[in-house]
Hints:
Blueprint: H1 2-19, E1 37-38, E2 45-46
Antiparallel strand pairs: 1-2
Amino acid sequence: MLETVIVISLFAALLFAGSTSSEPAYDVRISDSPTDLPCPWCLAPTQEQDAQCAACGQDFG
């Protein structure tokens, strides 16, 4: 009896895991624009050569 409950539970867990989406939770896009790097703190657009965020003032690096 216990073996049956365990097998059914594992089967249900596998079905549930298979039904979840494998899509990523976020979308990363790569382009040639130099302003595609958002500030990690406020998400304002920045440029690669910036030493700090122009919007919130946090230092990079």
